[in-house]
Amino acid sequence: MKGQRISNMSFTFMLCFFFLLVVQLLSLATRSTAAAGSEVPAIIVFGDSSVDAGNNNFIPTVARSNFEPYGRDFQGGKPTGRFSNGRIPTDFISEAFRIKSYIPAYLDPKYNISDFATGVTFASAASGYDNATSDVLSVIPSWKQLEYYKTYQKSLRAYLGETAASRTISEALHMMSFGTNDFLENYYAMPGGRSSEYSPQQYQDFLVGIAGNFIRQLYGLGARKISLGGLPPMGCLPLERATNIAGGNECVGRYNDVAIEFNAKLANLTMSLNMELPGIRLVFSNPYYMLLYIIKNPARFGFKSTSVACCGTGMFEMGYACRRGNMFSCSDASKYVFWDSFHPSEKTNGIIADHVVKTALAKFLE
Q: Which residues have a catalytic role annotated?
């Protein structure tokens, strides 16, 4: 009888041991899976208003959106400096990579290196590749964004330690989104400026050269995973359509043609740099055709308006013209492809981000 009790106790012990072993193995498998999906530990962003989360709030410029109704659909319903009613594409991308639901602005004093260690944006609304573009509204030029990045790296090394920081930098996804302002706020908007120096094709080449040098500098600073963003169909922005009176308020074809040509050159640059720089994983993220498809087929996505934005009359307003109390602003931004005359709504940003993640950025999730 005693031997039977010992035998039963042994069996019970073995059963418990086996159960604990299974739990441990499942836990390890879960952690391994999570780690596999977290090969990108941070998302680091450079660019313009398409990816600025509020840096312009802290510099002397009129290119701001830190007031209502901007941000009315963001967490807490408060404006952050994002040129949207809610989140911007890089916020959605960060969430898709299971990092965090939004990426903070580097100049925002609410955040510190513990927040920036997993994602930060140095972007500045109205900025461009060309320094002359940033000068138009006195915003942060691309070279200054790189300087901020260098300072960030020093802070990251102090916070994580040299080895861990270097690993984070090499594994982080670095995203670039410049170009639209170079054409619409500079080249075509400033008579006697760049348009008197370059033909549209020459200016494209000039910008591609800057983009290439920017990527080489990122590479020299340790970045290995980089996304080079392309131009949207900029002739279809509400502001451009509203001023295209002779064209019946349709998309401005020549602007879209320039975007297609420029994107092709960026794609070629991507291939060239992948061969030039050992170990780099550079991808070209092209929003052009997805956004154009949404504009041409709005009902498929639940939109009702493509040529007119939500804010104000939807034709000319952005920034300070989109003040709270504007009697014309829409009540439901999810029905509009564009939030203001220049920037997509949060819903559109989410669709574009999902497309980019499933195409260009998918290789970083493998």
A: 49, 340, 343
